[in-house]
Amino acid sequence: MRLDGLQLAREVVDALVDRQASDVVLLDLQGLSTFTDYFVIASADSERQLRALVEAVDEVSASHDGSRRSNRPRWEGRNEDGWRLADLGDTVVHIFAVEQRAYYNLEGLWRRAREVVHIQ
Question: The whole model's pTM is what?
């Protein structure tokens, strides 16, 4: 079953919160971006937790696009660098270590975006 971007983004938020991600934000970029409609941004407290959050996003994606490994999102970045990005089409997921999140400040960069969800 294929979800629209907002539904998928909300499921990703739920999965990240279930795995204890901190400061989870869902931004609506419609009308501001040509490459995606939503950003999900979350922080991980450790490399181990970052791996668990990546797995959670993979599970959400697989449950809606089929369970075949080839349907999982392509990830950019490395866990040990403290930043991962998954392109799910209408939704882009960013998972950061706390320091990298502060450095890249995506919320500030996209401050004109509407905040749909913010779970601290």
Answer: 0.90
Exposure on the CB side of residue 108, measured as CA atoms within 13 A: 5
Q: What residue spans of 1-120 are helical by DSSP H?
A: 5-18, 47-65, 98-104, 106-109
Residue 2 — very low, low, confident or very high, per pLDDT cuts 50/70/90? very low
CA–CA gap between residue 116 and residue 90 (Å, rounded): 15
Half-sphere exposure of 82 (CA within 13 A, CB side): 11
Residue 78 and residue 80: Cα distance in Å, rounded?
5
Q: Is 70 exposed, middle or buried (0-12, 13-18, 19+ CB in 10 A)?
A: exposed
> For residue 1, which amino acid is it?
M
Rounded distance, CA 118 to CA 107, Å?
A: 11
In this structure, is the dihedral angle defined by the CA atoms of residues 22, 23, 28 and 29, taken in order, positive or negative? negative
Identify the three-state secondary structure at position 38: strand
- Indicate if the pLDDT at residue 13 is higher than 80: yes
Pair of tokens at residue 120: 């601290």
Beta strands 91-97; 22-28: pairing state:
unpaired
